[in-house]
Amino acid sequence: MKKLAVVPVISAAMLAVMASAAYASQYVAYEGQAFTGRSVVIDRCGVSNIPFGGSYKWYGDGQSGRMYNQPNAEGVMHFELRSNRNAEQRTPVGWKSIFIVC
After folding, report:
1. pTM above 0.85?
2. pLDDT value of residue 101
3. Which is nearest to 78 in space by CA: 91, 62, 97, 54?
4. Cβ atoms within 10 Å, residue 96
């Protein structure tokens, strides 16, 4: 009987984790202009290097993104993508890395 009680608790915990993961800000980098070519989704907290600079889409859903013109978030922050607003640019960008603040 105790095993049956544990299963719903584990299932509830897994649903809570999955639900929270669904609401994370995402930076989508595209290889080409106008959101074409290969793409990569960056949504983890902390520093990530951006492999493509052709265009981007930002889905602000709770975390802000600090943008850097150097890899590994080195140097001065160039721009901050807001935590509560979406953004996009159809033309090339010079950002080389992002720090997602969680």
Report:
1. no
2. 97
3. 97
4. 19
